[in-house]
Amino acid sequence: MGWFDDKDNAPGVLSATMASDAQTVNGVSAEGLASSLEGGFAILVGVVIGFAYNWQISLVCLGCVPFMVFANIMNIKFQSGMSSDSDSGMREANLLAGDSIINYRTVASFANEDQIVRDFARMLEGPVEVAKRRSHTIGLIFGFSQFVQYAIFAILFYVGAIFQRNYFEDHFLNPFDIKDYSENIFTAIFVMMFGA
Q1: How far is 187 from 193, CA to CA, in rounded Å?
Q2: What does pLDDT average to over the chain?
Q3: Helix 175-195 and helix 55-89: axis angle, to 10°?
Q4: CA distance 143 to 71
Q5: Distance between CA atoms of 167 and 71, rounded to whole angstroms?
Q6: Smaller CB count within 10 Å for the chain: N or C?
Q7: What pLDDT band is residue 151 in, cutting at 50, 70 and 90?
Q8: Rounded CA separation 14/50 (Å)
Q9: How far apart are CA 57 and CA 47, in angstroms?
């Protein structure tokens, strides 16, 4: 019984901790492993299909894959750290809210509802400021990762156009062959980049 009297073991704090811990446990369970396997097989199949359609553009795509993966890893890392930074600052606010809800009769009998709301808002000022600063950083990182993705597509389309022009100069007499070559370039680009 005395364990619940400790300020850090109040029901509000425990429920907030359980909510964040459930997400952490879910992230390291088989669901995380399934996502890793899915990503690994996607890139492997993308490389195989890409090389089957056009080996030249596939080599260029392979050179671009690390940049795309790096940008996405940065994006995921910053977004996953968002909640952990604000959890510690919200502990006191969760404790106040939990105690107020459990002892609502006492709070109401002293007409302290407005004071509880003001105290709760004051306790959340720090976490809100941290979240705002972190949100701006995450927004910049997300913008950068989107820029990298579209810049890579632009580079691949440009290189694909150069390959197509060179192929057209070598095979001027057969326009149907050029159409197939163009479709193979686009197929290889999209398969490899969506796999990445």
Answers
A1: 10
A2: 80
A3: 30
A4: 10
A5: 33
A6: N
A7: very high
A8: 51
A9: 11
Mean of the pLDDT values across residues 97-117?
Answer: 83
Token pair for residue 96? Answer: 């106040």
Give the right CATH number for 2-195 from 3.30.1330.40, 1.20.1560.10, 3.40.50.2000, 3.60.15.10: 1.20.1560.10
Give the three-class secondary structure for 168.
Answer: helix
DSSP assignment of 110-158 equals TT-HHHHHHHHHHHHHHHHHHHHHHHHHHHHHHHHHHHHHHHHHHHHHH
* DSSP assignment string, 62-107: HHHHHHHHHHHHHHHHHHHHHHHHHHHHTHHHHHHHHHHHHTHHHH
- Tokens 């597509």 -> residue: 153
Delimit the domains of the chain by residue range: 2-195
CA distance 139 to 147: 12
